[in-house]
Amino acid sequence: MTQPLTRRQFHKLAASTAAFTTIPSSVLGANEKVNVAIIGCGGMGGNDGNQVFNTGLVNVVALCDVALGTKHTAGIEAKYPDVPRYHDFRVMFDEMEKDIDACTVGVPDHAHFPIAILAMSLGKAVYVEKPLAHTYDEISKLIAAEEKYGVVCQMGNQGHSGENYHQFKAWREAGIISGVTEVTAYMNSGRRWHGWKDVDYPTGEAMPEGLDWDVWIGTAPEAPYSTKLHPGNWRSWFDYGSGAFGDWGPHILDTVHRFLDLGIPSKTTAVKREGPRDLIFPMASTIQFDFPERGDEPPCSVTWYDGTSNRPERPKELPEGQNLGRAGKIIRGKDTTFIGSSHGSPLSIIPEERREELAPKLPEYEVGSNHYLNFVRSVKGEEKTRSPFRVSGPLCQMFCLGMIAQRLGGSLDFDRDREVITNNELANAMLTGPPPRREWAEFYKL
User: Fold this and answer.
1) I need a labelling partner for 331 at 20 to 30 A (CA). Which of 7, 17, 186, 409 fits?
2) pTM here?
3) Across 217-353, where does the E strand assignment appear?
4) What percent of the chain has pLDDT over 90?
């Protein structure tokens, strides 16, 4: 007799038919709690799971991490001692699909896509850490899946529910922020890879007991285990992380990108690359994104600076003695300059004289639920997520183009209608990246 299909296998088969639609696994009542699986239990992934739990509207029903049983996940395992544990998210969904309403995905950048797309295809709401995925094409697939499967989605750029979101939206709608032609963004703190001498993947380290390295690698190119990859250091490598762009870009440029309706840049230029490497991110870079006119808005350039000494020019409008912080943005509008830092921190108008002039015209605004509460309430049908994939996806696709420029140098011309890089064949191939390992190819068909 043939073996019965697992839920995941059945879903894969059903998804191949054009008539297939997904019905959520459960419809929550007003007083019901959301059953959440925490996927990625160390570092930021553990924080996401705890923050969602702290809303008081959630039951944690499963933990999933390739390193469960190690010190990396010990804290969250101790907090939720009686829930099922899994190293492999595929096994978890096979066994617990009916028990899960939503999941948090706080894993290395290269692993976001297969987890998120499988969960969405099973009708699960997803909270996915930033950046949304590792390649331009993966992000496009997640944006399409959000519409196809009709599930609640939120990217984890937490400041997008903070004061800056509500302020920027109100100031934009009131015409205070208008005619923006130039944005400067910067992140000048030290990065994990600064000072690294390696020119190839390190080898020779013993694998920690209990670590499922095959699942950690997932869809990405294979590499031997190394502490230069796990935990945390994966962010340094082109094959697995997204550098300073992926780490800080979604927290600095999210409101600029959304409320100025920037979309995808028509040109991305590596103005500066300091210490470029084949496998890891440069020690410093300056990347310029050029956006065309959008309705009544003029063309706009966004210039990004990273590296500890690669700092943008100090605005002459800043009061004497005030310097730029280590991360932030400068926005130059038609007749007003704004300055801000990161996450949900509000903007300021400079200089003081202009701020006083505009003060009577500044609209009031209210700050609502935080990012995690916004997600959970959206799962319950009470709110709409502020950073759904149709909003956060194009933001991260802009960063994907920036990372290709960091890697290759030069300028990349992008056809916004056809979504192709027209002047560099290798760069255009990087929009998709290398083929996934054979056993992971199924996720790109969901």
Assistant:
1) 409
2) 0.94
3) 267-274, 284-291, 300-306, 327-332, 337-340, 348-350
4) 89
